Amino acid sequence: MRKPIIAITGSAGKTTTKEMLASILSQRWRTFKSFENGNDAWFISQYMKQIKAADQAIVLEYGMKMKGDIRSHCRLIKPWIGIITNIGKAHIGNFKDGILGIAAAKSELIHGMDPSGILFINRDDKNSRLLHIKSFKGKVFYIGIHGPGDYRAKKIAYTSNGMKFSVRLNGITRVFNIPCFGECNVYNALFAIAVSHQLGCSTPEIRTGLKKMEKPYARLSIKRTVKSIIIDDSFNTKPELEPAMEVLERIGVGNQRKIAVLADIRDLGKYAKSIHLAQGRKLAKKGLYRLYTYGLYSKYLGIGAMESGLPLKRVKHFTDINNLKKQLSKDLGQNSVFLVKGSTNGQKVKMMHVVEWMLRKGNRMRKIGSSS
């Protein structure tokens, strides 16, 4: 079998899919993978130097902010297998023709990979129908949950440690577990299962790889204090908030108060206000006890939520991180579940620091409580 060189792109899920797939393949072969979320042209140029002849499988993440980015990646390292996780609105402000421009830019992977290779697409993602697949001469496999696919997950359930679901492989239903939460991560796992299965990996190898995967930092990570649960999604804020909100809805139990702490969504350009408003209107239907927003355009998340019925007293906007912490300090003493999302650049760092502060604060509460 030829050495698999695998490139993963998409608007969300790239790093998690890469970690899942690399972990599975490493059960069988010496596997090279991208470093953390290092996915721009500089990183790809460095991987060219780092990949050794002894590496038997290569799993790379191809990032995209502008037209031509993925074309450049493919010129540096041409993949034989391609995964396009989904087409969302991330970085839409960099494209004059909006989602069509993003789909065209992601399609650069299809044009730049081995034309006789294998391509994996998310059939459930409606925007993936905009990809330039017709000219591709290789094999195409589809994954899905809500509709038919070559690899389809069924019987999806939350467990104490992640997600459980079943997939039919070679006509036999197999059960898999992943150590991360959310339907979004089931999609990521389906890509990893599909590619590794096509490469001949056994079910035990796939299960072990998924179990041992290196979980990306601050992406729907569950952390706990004495009274609260923190869903740490502070690495980034995508224009689509639904995956993280689903986890917030499902993780909170009983009378736990659900509190969303959301920073700006960046790189939206002329679409910034409208996208924040639209996402805010959806938040109103998520049973939130409180919605806290931080930044500039994030205030429109709150405005949109209030337009759709979330009471004014439940919404608060912050432009000072210390004032946000003061408010969260009050909430940490309650039985609450928090979702904390960051954004790119400085806001990402600030929201990561907020999570760290919340954990320290919660631990101090535990010590005080245990001494009384």
Number of strands: 15
Termini, distance in Å?
Answer: 65 Å
Task: Give the helix tally.
Answer: 12
Major sheet details: 9 strands, mixed
Structural class: alpha/beta
Q: What percentage of the residues does DSSP assign to strands (E)?
A: 15-25%
The side-by-side strand order for the widest beta sheet comes to 2-3-1-4-5-6-7-8-9
**Outline:** globular
Order of helices and strands: EHEHEHEHHEEEEEHHEEHEHEHEHEH
Task: Describe the oligomeric state of these chains in a short phrase.
Answer: single chain
Could you name the ranges where pLDDT drops below 50 across 5 or more consecutive residues? Answer: 367-372
Mean pLDDT: 93
Rg from Cα: 21 Å
Give the helix level as a range of percent: 25-40%
Description:
This protein is of the alpha/beta class. It is 38% helix and 22% strand. It has a 9-stranded mixed sheet, covered by helices on one side. Strands 10-11-15-12-13-14 form a 6-stranded mixed sheet, with helices on both faces. Helix 1 packs parallel to helix 6 and helix 2 (41-50) packs parallel to helix 3. The radius of gyration is 21 Å and the shape is globular. The chain starts with a strand and ends with a helix. The model is unreliable at 367-372 (pLDDT under 50).
